[in-house]
Structure formats: C-alpha cells, structure tokens
Design a protein that fits this description.
- By secondary structure, the protein is mainly alpha-helical.
- It has one domain: Up-down Bundle (Four Helix Bundle (Hemerythrin (Met), subunit A)), CATH 1.20.120.1760.
- It is 68% helix and 0% strand.
- The protein contains 10 helices and no strands.
- The radius of gyration is 18 Å and the shape is globular.
C-alpha cells in the first residue's frame, strides 16, 4: 500500500531505495520479522557506518549510509504489507533517526577536524530541513486520504493501536516529543497555514524532497566516497538557507 493515492504520487528524490525496500518487505511478509526489528537493523547499519568513518573506510561508510536509508523505508513497507500500523514503530523510527543524525555529524566533525559549533549548526539545519519536508508530506497525505500513521500535529498522545500497549505508546511519544518539539514548532510557526492549502502539486513536493533524510544521507555518502568530508558540515549549513525559499513558494505560489 502506497502512502499516497496514485494521482498524488510524486518523484521523491529522498526515496530512491523504495524499490529495494518493497522487495525486502515482501520477502519478510510471511516471516516472524517485525517492522520494529527492521528499524533496529537500520540503527545497526548506522552505527557500522560511524565506525567505518572513524577508521577511514569512507566508501564502506557511504554504502552503509545508503543501506541505512533503504532499511529506513523497509520498516514502513513491512508494516503496510503486514497491516500492522504502530505508533511505537513510528516514534521508534524517528527517535533513531535524530540520534543517528547527531552521531553522524559528530563523527564527521571528528574526522574532518571541525568545530562543535559548526557541527551543532549543521545538525539544527538538517533537522529543520527534514521537519519541513515531513510537515508538507504529512499534510499532503492527510489531505488526500493517504497514510495517516503520522499526524500533522504531534501535540497529544495518541491512542494505542492493536498490538501495542498504551504505556509503551506514552513513553515513546514523550521521548519523541522531547527530541522533536523545537523543530516541529519552529517549522509550524514559519508556515502555520500550510495545512489550509489545497493539495501540494507534484513539482513542489519533488523539489522539497531534497530535504528528505534519504537525500541528506545520499549527499553525505557522495562527499564521503569522494573523501571530501571537510565540506559536509558547511554544505548542510548553507543548504538550510533553502528553507525560507520553499516556504515562500508555498505561501506565494500555492
């Protein structure tokens, strides 16, 4: 099951691994493997990428980052083919992503002799970029009756779905909210009327998908493979300047 009805599906530049992710999900559909276990696999892939960076195996690190991105899509695909939507899985995925993003940049700072302040600025930039993309994507999905596991406003604890306990959902929601609230609220206040817009056109979503986590990891991978690690942190700081551009396009054109 796709996240969007066919007429609203767009070319998602951050979702280059979707085909492989679907193959993995279909292969695991009738096994005991759960989506949460696949999420754990991508965490392991991310940790291995960090060690590869530290020890100078940059091409291996690049491959592992792309593999992490594919597995990041595969957990959601497996949830859909098994028809086991889960708020715990959704929050676990997001919590893992933000922690790994921080560790990736911390590692890149270490191997490129960067400064902590530049690293933190790049981390804030990456998170705001991803939040803007997810904000618009979730709005679109909810507007056109697509996948609704993710909510436009994560401002209250959701009721547990079948197969998960409310206590676990509460714990994962509170952890998610603590880590993401500053980014979610920042993007919301930058474009609080976005949810009132008509469905976003495909060209706009494709443009905005350069802020998706998969594309961000692909950029990191390219820089690593080219041994241009010193440019990764400055790139993401400058890339953040596109945020007001996308918001202005949404406000003035759409």
């Amino acid at each position: 099951m796709a996240k969007l009805p066919k007429e609203y599906q767009f070319i998602d530049l951050s979702d280059y691994g979707r085909g492989v992710a679907r193959w993995i999900a279909n292969a695991l559909q009738h096994t005991s493997v759960t989506p949460i276990q696949v999420t754990t696999w991508f965490i392991i892939a991310g940790i291995l990428a960090i060690f590869a960076m530290i020890y100078g195996y940059y091409i291996l690190a690049a491959i592992l980052l792309v593999w992490k991105s594919i597995l990041d899509a595969a957990d959601g695909e497996l949830s859909r083919v098994k028809n086991t939507p889960s708020y715990v899985g959704r929050y676990y995925d997001s919590i893992a992503d933000i922690i790994l993003n921080f560790l990736f940049l911390l590692t890149i700072m270490y191997i490129s002799d960067g400064t902590i302040w530049m690293m933190l600025l790049a981390f804030l930039g990456i998170q705001l970029q991803g939040t803007l993309y997810n904000y618009y994507y979730v709005i679109l999905r909810n507007t056109v009756s697509g996948d609704t596991t993710s909510r436009i406003f994560e401002d209250s604890i959701p009721t547990a779905m079948k197969g998960e306990t409310q206590a676990t959902v509460d714990l994962f929601y509170k952890t998610y909210n603590t880590l993401y609230i500053i980014f979610d609220k920042s993007i919301y206040y930058m474009d609080r009327k976005a949810s009132d817009s008509r469905p976003f056109p495909k060209w706009f979503m494709t443009m905005n998908s350069v802020f998706g986590l998969g594309f961000q990891l692909l950029i990191m991978s390219v820089f690593l493979a080219l041994e241009m690690t010193v440019y990764i942190i400055p790139f993401f700081i400058l890339f953040t300047l596109l945020i007001p551009v996308f918001i202005l396009i949404r406000r003035l054109v759409l």
